[in-house]
Amino acid sequence: MFLGLEYYLVLSALLFTIGVIGVLIRRNAIIIFMCIELMLNAANLAFVAISRDLGQVEGQLFVFFVMAVAAAEVAIGLAIIVSVFKHRETINVDEVNSLKG
Amino acid sequence: MNAEMILFFIFGAVSLIGAIAVISFRHPIYSALSLIVTFFAQAGLFVLLGAHFVAAVQVIVYAGAIMVLFLFVIMLLNLGTLSEKGALTGKLKGVATVLGILLAIQGIYIAVNALNNTEVGSVEAQEKAAALAENPIETYDIGKLLFSEYLLPFEVTSLILLAALIGVIVLVKRENQTEN
Amino acid sequence: MSKALIILLLISPLVGFLINGLFGKWLKGKEKLSGGIGALAVLVSLICSIVAFVSVQDGNILEGDAGILYPWISDYISIGFHVDALTTVMLLVITGVGFLIHVYSIGYMHGDAGYTRYFAYLNLFVFAMLILVLGNNYLMMFVGWEGVGLCSYLLIGFWYEKQSATDAGKKAFIVNRIGDFGFLLGMFTLFAAFGSLDFVSIFDNAEAGNFQQVFGASTLVIATLLLFVGAVGKSAQLPLYVWLPDAMEGPTPVSALIHAATMVTAGVYMIARSAVLYNIAETGVVVAWIGVLTALFAAIIALKQNDIKRILAYSTVSQLGYMFVGVGVGAYASGIFHLVTHAFFKGLMFLTAGSVMHAMANELDIRKMGGLRNKLPITHATFLVGALAIAGAPFLSGFWSKDEILHSAWGSSKVIYIIGLITAFLTAFYMFRLIFVTFYGKSRVEPEVASHLHESPGIMWVPLVILAIPSALIGLLLGVGGHNSWFHHFTEDVFPKAGKAPGNVILFMAISSIVGIAGIAFAWTRYKNRVPSDEPTNALQKLVANKFYIDEVYNTFIVQPIKNASHFLLWRLFDTGIIDGIVNGVATLIRVIGGTLRRLQTGLVQVYIVSMVIGIVLFLAYYLFFS
Fold it and tell me: What is the pTM for the complete model shown?
C-alpha cells in the first residue's frame, strides 16, 4: 500500500506557500525567481502524486511540459535581469519602479 | 510506518528546510545552493512516487541546467548581498506572513478534505492504483504517449524553447553594436 | 388686381437687397450703380403701388381666399396678401417716401465705406415693411414687424465703429423686444380665441361673437391691449419711447425713412388694421390716453433739446402720439391720414436736417448754427414748409390731419382734446424755435465750417423739393371736408363707421389755427434774434432739459437691477457657481479619484503581487468555505 496522497499534497502546499512568501518578502530579483521555481516544483510534486494516485501517465507528462516552459521562462527572466542590471546597476525590485503612476 | 513513509519524511523535511533556506539567506549564492538541495530532495520524492523519468529530468534540467544558469548569472553580475531595507520591507513582511499562513491553511485543507469529494481517492482510483503498483508507469509509457497523443504540444514546446532562445539573444545583445 | 403685381411689388426690393448684399464687393466704388439699383428696386415697387392703388380705387380688393398664395403652417396660416384701401395708402407712403429717400441717400451717403451695405439694408427694410402691410394675417405682419425691427437695428448701428451707435442699436432692439413680446402674446391670445390669425376670418368672427372666450368676457380686451404693447414698443410711445431719440445715431435718411415715416407708424397701422377688434373691446380709450400723454410729454422734452435730430425725434414721438389719439378715439381714417401727412413732412424735415448736417460737416447742435437761411436757401425753404405743416399752419397738410384728430378727440374726451391742443401749441413753438435758432439770427457757425457752407447737390435737394410739395398740399387734396373728405371716402370700407364728431368744423379749424400761429409767434418773440442761452435756470427747466431723467430712471430701476441680477445671480451664482461648479466639480472628482488610485500604481512589483495573493486567498476562501 502506498503512502496517502494527502501527505504529498500537504508538502506541496507548504512548499508553494514558502515560495509565495519568498516572492513577497525578498527584494532580490534573482531570489524572487528562485521562489517562482520553488512554486513550480511544488506544483510538479502535486502533479506526480495525483498521477500515481489515479494511475494515469498524463500527470508526469505535464510535469515534463512544465519543466520545458520553466526552462524557457528562466532563460528569458535571467536575460531580463541581466539587461536591467546593465541599465540600472541594481536588481532590487524596489528600485526598479519606473512604472509607477 | 514503512520505508516509503520514512523516506518521504526525510525528503520532505530536507526540501522544506531547503526552501526556507532559499528565502532566508541574504546572499543569492547560498539561496541558489539551497534551492539545489530542495530540487534533489524533490527528485527523491519523485522516485518515491515511481516517476523515475521525472526524477531524472528534475536532476538534469532543474538541478543541473537551470541552477547552473542561476549561478552563472549571479556570478556574472557579481551580485553581493542586497540591502533588504526597501521602502515596504517591514510592512510587507507582516502581510506576507499572514497571507502565507492563510494560503498554507487553505492548501492543507484542500489536501485533507477537498479531495474526498472528487474522483481522487475513490474506490476505482484505489483499485487502479493497486493495479499500478504491480504495473508501474515506465518511461516507455511516457514516451509513447508523448509522441502519439501529445505530439502537437511537444512540438509547440520546442517552439517555445526556440522563441526563448531568440528572445534571450535579443535581450542581452549589446546595444552599442548597432551604433558601431 | 393680380397677385403677380403684388409679388413683383414685394420682390423688387428683395432683389435689390440681394444684389447689393451679395455683390457689394463688386459694386464697391460704383456708388451710382449701387445706389441706382437700390432706388430702382423701390421705384418698381412704387409703380406697382400706384397701379394697385388705382385698382383698389376701382373696387378691386384682394382679400380673403383670393389673396392666398399657398398654405404655410398646416391649415391654420397661409402666406397671402390683403390689399385694400388701407394697404395701398401704406404702400404709397412706404414706396413713395422710400423712393425719394433712396434717391436722396445716393448723394447723402457719398463716400461712405459701407455704401452698398447701406443700400442693401435699406432695400431689406422696404421689403420687410411691405410684408408687414401686405400680409393677410397677424403672423405675416409679425414677420414684417420683426424684419423692420432687424433693419432698424442694423441701420441705427450702421456706423458700428461708433460705440454710441451700436449702443443705440442695441437699445432699440431690446426695447422693441419688450413690445414684440406683447405682440406675440396678443397673437397667441387671438389664435387661442379664433383658431386662426387671418384678418378677415378674425374680424368676421369677432363681429359675430363667434370665438372661444379664453379669458372670459375680457378675451378681446386682453388681446387688443397686448397687441397695443407691441405698438407701444414699435411706435415709441410711453413708456417705451426711449429708443427712438437714441436711434438718431443712424444715418439721417434712415431716421427719415424708418424712424419717422414708416416703421414707427407700424403700430398705428396695426391698430387701424385691427379696428374691428378695438371697437368691440373698447380699448381705444387706453390707446388714446397713452397717445395724448406721449404727445404732450415728448413735446415738452423737445422744448429744451439742442440737437437738431433729437428735436425731430421727440417731435416724431409726439406726432405718433397724435396718431394713436386718432385711432384710439375711433377716428381710424384720421389717424391714418395723419400718418400719411406726417410721413411726408417729417420725412422732409429729417432730410433737410440731413442737408444741414451735410453742409455743416455733421454738426448737430443748433446753438452752433444760426443764419443758415442765406447759405442754404432750398434747405431753409423746404424745412420751413415742413415746419409749417407740422405746426398746423392753415391749409398745409398737418393742419388738416391734426385738426381732424383733435375734432374727433373732442367727441370722445374733452380732456384729451385740451391736452392735444396744448401739445399743438408746444409743437409749433419748438419747431419754430428750431427754425429761428438754426436759420435766422446771427451766424454762430465756427469759422472753418462756415467757409465750407454749401447747398446740397441736386440729387439731395430735388427729393426735398418733391417731398415739400405733398407736405404742403396733400392735405388740401385728401383732407378737405373733414369726415366727408376724399380720404375718408376712400377708406370707408376698411374701418368701422365712426360717429360724426359734434361741433362746428370751422370753429375747430379756427381754434387749431390760432393755437398753431400763437406757438409760432411765441417762438418768434423768444428766439427771433436771441442767441439761445438755454442753460436751465430753474429746477423745472433742468428737469425738461434732462428729458425728465427717464433714461436715468430706467437705468437705475430696470437696467441696473437686471445687470446686477445677471452679474450676481446668473453669472456669479449660476454660471460660475453652478454650471462651472458642475464642470469643475466633475473634473476635480476625477482628479481626486485618479490621484488616489494613482498611489496604487506604485511601480513596486511586490505590492501588486500582494494584492494578487490577497485575491487568491479570498477566492479560495470563498470557494472552499462558502460555496
Answer: 0.68
